[in-house]
């Protein structure tokens, strides 16, 4: 995969103000991609946009709560008004709630997890696909989790939501393959992003690392490298896949 393959590609990233989203934006800014950045954290988004604009990148930043279909639709529409098309949609926004057993998980926990982690991805896919159908296709990447491929004790709502993301990914891939729209999901193991380090899981990193054959957690830049590979236009025959990036955890 060559990073120059993103030159003049319009790439939309949700959850762009931090974590994987900010790293993706920084990497893509160096390639000549046209960036459409969305996040509910308006201040963080503005800081990132200023930094990238100072490097000469083409950036459109718009506050967006992905639980609102109207706000997601507005970001896609703004991307098309500004750049004329949408080549890549990366649905990265997500949340991780405090750890609880399934029996302790409340309806409010489930609703919150599904609102962001499932509906947010669904709304992104829906409006990205509608635009891609109006042009000559495109690529969608959904950020799921290893918890979307296996069980995740004490994270029932999160695991259920990420399994739903994998199901949406495979369904859309099958429906739109003939329209030159590729849809994949990336399923990372724990990585040192603020969502992980700022939770109870952050205190268990050493223990979790021992459960991986590589005996370490993934680095955020390693996850971003996999995401860029999955979205690259040269990777034109891969669709409907949920790709684990997990240091070998799912191999055993």
Provide a short characterization of the protein structure:
The chain is α/β, with parallel strands linked by helices and 252 residues long.
Instruction: Tally the beta strands.
Output: 7
Q: Roughly how many Å is the radius of gyration?
A: 17 Å
Instruction: Enumerate how many helices there are, as a single number.
Output: 8
- Going by CATH, the architecture would be 3-Layer(aba) Sandwich
Straight-line N-to-C gap: 28 Å
Largest sheet: 7 strands, parallel
Q: How much helical structure, as a percent, in the residues?
A: 40-55%
DSSP strand (E) fraction? 15-25%
What class do helices, strands and sheet pairing give? alpha/beta
Q: Which whole number gives the mean pLDDT?
A: 94
In CATH, the homologous superfamily goes by the name NAD(P)-binding Rossmann-like Domain
> Largest beta sheet: what is the strand line-up?
3-2-1-4-5-6-7
What is the CATH topology assignment? Rossmann fold
Low-confidence stretches are none
List the domain count as a whole number. 1
Mind telling me the CATH class? Alpha Beta
Shape: globular
* H-E order: EHEHEHEHEHEHHHE
List keywords for this structure.
single chain, 252 residues, alpha/beta, Rossmann fold, 7-stranded parallel beta sheet, glucose 1-dehydrogenase [NAD(P)+] activity, Glucose 1-dehydrogenase
